[in-house]
Amino acid sequence: MNLLLLLAGPLFIGATFALMVLRVEPFANFFYLCAWYGLIFTFDQLIRRREGRSLIVRCGPGFLLVLFWSAAAWYFFELVNLRLQNWYYVFVVDHPLARPIGTFLSFATVFPGIFWIDHYLSLRGVGASIRGRPLIFGESGRRNLQLVGLLFLALPMIWPTYFFPLVWGTVFLLLAPIEYRSGRGLLHQLEEGDYGPLVRMLLAGLIAGFFWESLNFWARAKWIYTVPFFDRLKLFEMPVAGFLGFPPFAVECAVLYRLLVWHRVAPAFGAYSEQKPKRGAWGGRMAAVVLTLLFSLGVDYYIVGPVIVTSVTPSVEKIDGLDQGTRGALAERGVNYLTDLEGVGGDQIWGTLEAALSVEEMETLRRVSALYLHQGIGVEYGNLLVGAGIGSLETLAELEAEEVRQRLERSAPGARLPTLPQIRVWIRRAPKEE
Predict the structure, then answer these.
(1) Which one of 287, 308, 329 terminates a domain?
(2) How many domains does the chain fold into?
(3) Which residues are CB-neighbours of 413 under 8 A, at least 6 positions away?
(4) CA distance linking residue 359 with residue 367, whole number of Å
(5) Which domain covers residue 379, as residue numbers?
(6) pLDDT > 60? residue 434
(7) How many CB atoms within 10 Å of residue 57?
(8) 41 in a structural domain
(9) Tens digit of pLDDT for each residue in 166-193?
(10) Domain boundary among 308, 333, 364
(11) pLDDT attached to residue 280
C-alpha cells in the first residue's frame, strides 16, 4: 500500500501527460493543473515515507488555506504584471466559470509546491551544516531594508523595462523586518549565522521553478514570457536568466507564509510553527480571508481575464475566413476547436479532411490553423491579423512588429490589440520562407 501511494503521484502525472498528448479532455486543457497537484502529492508521499506522516494530513482541512493564500499571493504578482507585462496566458479554457476556477487552482499550487520541496530537502539534511558570519539587523537596518523594498517596488512601476527584476525582492524586503518582530524568522537565523534554511529555500525555489517551466512547456494552456533583453536564450518558455528569479521568490513566499502562520490565519507545519500567544478574534481572521478573497477575485476579473489572458481555446465557429463547407466538414468530424487538429488524433482528422475538401479549402484551413495556433495567437488576434491583410505565418514573419501593430491599429481602431513584445514573439518564432 505504501509503495502504491508513493507511485501514485508519478503515475498520475504520466497518465495526464499521455492524455494531454492524445488531446483527451479535460486533461488537454488542464494538464498543467493536474500535473502540479500530482507533483505535490508525490513530494507529500516522499515526506510521509521519510517522516512517517504527510504534510497534507498534518494540515488537515487547513491545507485548503495553504492553497487559498498561495493563490492570493500570486494574484499580487499578476497585479504587478499589469505594469511589467512580462508574461501572458494563452489558450486557457473557453468557459466563463471554468477559466477563473482553473486559474485560482493553478495559482494555489505555488506555496505547497515550494514548501513541500523545502520540507523534503530539510528531511534529507540539505543545508543543515551551512553556517557563516552572523549578520546583525538593528532597528535602523531593518527600517532601511523596508525603504529599499519600497524603492524596489517603485522603480519597476516607473521604468519597468529596466528595473523589472527588482520586483522579485520587494516582498522580502518589506515583510522580513515585520517578520523579525513576529517570532523567529529569516533575519533571526542570519543573525545566528545559520544560513542553511536560506540556502535550502533558495534551492527549493530553483527546483520548483524547473518543474513550473518544464510542465508549462508541454501544456496547451500556458504562459509565454516577454521579458526585455533576455527573450532569445530560453530553457523551456523561460529565458535562462529568468531562473535566477525563482530562488528569491521562494524566500518571499516563506517570509509571507510565516507571517500568516504567526497571525493564525494559515496552518502551522514544519518550519512554520510559531504563532502569536494570544489567538485573535475569529471575526478579524475571517475578515482578513474575505478581504483577500475579494482582492483575488477583483484582480482575476479586471486584470487576469481581460488583460493578461490573451487567448482562449480557439473555437472554429468564431474564426473569420473559413467557408461553410470547411466548417461543415470540421463539425462532422467533431472538431469544435482548432486544437483538435493537433496531436495524434489530429493527424487522422487531417487525413479524412483531404478527401472531403478541395485543394483550395485545405490550403486555407492549413494556413488559418497554423496562424491561429502559433504561439497562442488565438481567434481574437488571429481575426485581427487576417483583417489587416496578414493571413499567414509566412506573411507575419516578413514584417516588423511596429508595422504589424500599425496595420492592426488602422484596420481595427478601438479593438484590444496585442502588445509589441507579444508581436515580436510571434515574428521571432514564425517559420521563415527559404
Answers:
(1) 308
(2) 2
(3) none
(4) 12
(5) 316-429
(6) no
(7) 11
(8) no
(9) 999 999 999 999 988 877 788 888 988 9
(10) 308
(11) 64
